[in-house]
From TrEMBL:
Domain Carbohydrate kinase FGGY C-terminal, residue spans: 252-436
Single biological process term from Gene Ontology: xylulose catabolic process
Active site: D235 (proton acceptor)
Known catalytic reactions: D-xylulose + ATP = D-xylulose 5-phosphate + ADP + H(+)
Organism whose genome encodes this protein: Parasedimentitalea marina
Family under the similarity heading: Belongs to the FGGY kinase family.
Binding site for substrate: M79, H80
Main enzyme class: transferase
EC number: 2.7.1.17
PANTHER family for the chain: SUGAR KINASE, XYLULOSE KINASE
Protein name: Xylulose kinase
Length: 484
């Protein structure tokens, strides 16, 4: 038996699977995010430990015999977080999360440093780890002086599980300290970030073993034998493992809290100017490119709070079958934007509201705005030479047929919907655990889900959505100027 742990921003999800990857049980534990100042987003790593104990207890209670037979644990986690650890293994301050924007100035300085983009393969975004440490150096120098190790969130959980300081290539690719082409720490990048190699964890591939669960934990949990912990990876890379997306040309679109359009690559071919992320995959000798928007279903959640109706109610009120884009445009920059703008200060807007606008009209505009933002991502991927002929669609937003039809037509791509099941990062983490323990061929472990249905673009509406997307795209510089 195997366990996949997905350390998300709002909670920890656990899956218990058999050797074939079939899901036996699931468990979840929630925790909060602290926002002490505008643009700040922090989390207490102790909450991750408490959540892990909670999900393990739940899995054990539900399936005690299967739980005792666990042989491997895989890890997935939200990327870019800075967990600062002292010489005695103590946490020095709350973890600074991926959506924290306080280090925008430090990111700009690093991004302009010679060779940083070339070696890291990416723009230095404010959410990345390296600028966070420069911010700590400048604003919390006493804490900076005590830093013995910097761990990404899931790697702190690993440290608690195994006692080992280990990271993996896919998660570490989002730090701006990794030579993404060579899949190793870069001393030049570390020097640019005022960091040292001894402050970094040892690196392994996501499908390799990173250590063993501590004997005391196994005894406390009632696991009968040795338990390997896989290298794991960043959430999107591990989610790609969960849907079998690791061959060149494979891709998926995720309508989650944030939005992602990801394509697997068999070579390292970065193009930072497009604001497309180029990261190591969680499996060896593979990379991926990814466009990211910071708010996808989060935009619908925001609208639901404004109008006092649930997201499901808002989505359910829309008719099935798109008939053309709304006259009202929504720019979904509620938390800033990554691809293609790399702009932490831009904010969202409705354009074209009038007295007749209804909540349904606004819901449609929100779904279209997110779809247009993902079209920006597709165009950015194409600019790097990456072309997708179809993509798998996953995430909570795929429950809306209207949103799926809008997105397929906006992207002008068929969207394949998997059969019902859990195909997220927790499953990918469990698959990495299977790989680390059994050393079986990855293609037999990380299979693609069966496709239940394909949403085709509405051919007679593609041009209209493309024209409206051009109007949407032209609004960004005007909004930027208005917010100065």
């Amino acid at each position: 038996m195997y366990i996949g742990l997905d350390l998300g921003t709002s909670g920890l999800r656990a899956l218990l699977t058999d050797e074939g990857g079939a899901i036996v049980a699931t468990a979840d534990a929630a925790y909060g995010v602290s926002n002490p100042y505008p643009g700040w987003s922090e989390q207490d790593p102790a909450d991750w430990i408490e959540a892990c104990n909670t999900v393990m207890a739940a899995l054990k209670e539900a399936h005690p015999r299967d739980f005792s037979a666990v042989r491997g644990i895989g890890l997935s986690g939200h990327m870019h977080g800075a967990t600062l650890v002292g010489a005695e293994g103590q946490v020095l301050r709350p973890c600074i999360l991926w959506n924290d924007t306080r280090s925008a100035a430090q990111a700009a300085v690093l991004d302009e440093t010679p060779n940083v983009r070339d070696l890291s393969g990416n723009i230095v975004f404010p959410g990345f780890t390296a600028p966070k440490l420069r911010w700590v150096e400048e604003n919390e120098p006493k804490i900076f002086a005590q830093v013995a190790k910097v761990l990404l969130p899931k790697d702190y959980l690993r440290y608690w599980l195994t006692g080992e300081f280990v990271g993996d290539m896919s998660d570490s690719a989002g730090t701006s300290w990794l030579d993404v082409g060579k899949r190793d720490w870069s001393e030049e990048l570390l020097e640019a970030g005022h960091m040292r190699l001894d402050q970094m964890p040892r690196l392994v591939e996501g499908s390799d073993s990173s250590g063993m669960v501590r004997a005391q934990l196994r005894a406390d949990w009632g696991m009968s034998g040795p338990v390997t912990v896989a290298g794991g990876g960043g959430d999107n890379a591990v989610a790609a493992c969960g849907v079998g997306c690791f061959r060149d040309g494979d891709g998926f679109v995720s309508l989650g809290t944030s939005g992602v359009l990801l394509a697997a690559k068999n070579s390292f071919a970065p193009d930072p100017e497009t604001a497309v992320h180029t990261f190591c995959h969680a499996v060896p000798d593979t990379w991926y490119q990814m466009g990211v928007i910071l708010a996808a279903t989060d935009c619908l959640n925001w609208l639901s709070r404004i109008v006092g109706r649930t997201p499901a109610d808002l989505a359910g009120a829309l008719k099935t079958g798109v008939s053309g884009p709304s006259k009202t445009l929504f720019l979904p920059y509620l938390s800033g934007e990554r691809t293609p703008h790399n702009d932490s200060t831009i904010r969202g807007s409705f354009i074209g509201l009038d007295v007749a606008t209804t909540p349904e009209d606004m819901t449609q505009s929100v779904m279209e705005g997110v779809s247009f933002a993902l079209r920006d991502n597709l165009d950015a991927l194409k600019a790097t030479g990456t072309n997708l002929s179809r993509v798998l669609a996953i995430g909570g937003g795929t429950k809306s047929r209207f949103w799926l039809e809008t997105l397929a037509t906006t992207l002008n791509l068929p969207l394949d919907l998997p059969e019902k099941g859990d195909f997220g990062a927790a499953l990918g983490a469990a698959r990495l655990a299977i790989a680390a323990d059994t050393r079986a061929d990855l293609s037999t472990i990380m299979t693609a889900p069966k496709v239940a249905e394909t949403i085709e673009p509405c051919a007679d509406l593609v041009d209209r959505y493309s024209e409206t997307h051009a109007r949407y795209r032209a609004l960004y510089p005007h909004l930027k100027a208005a917010l100065k």
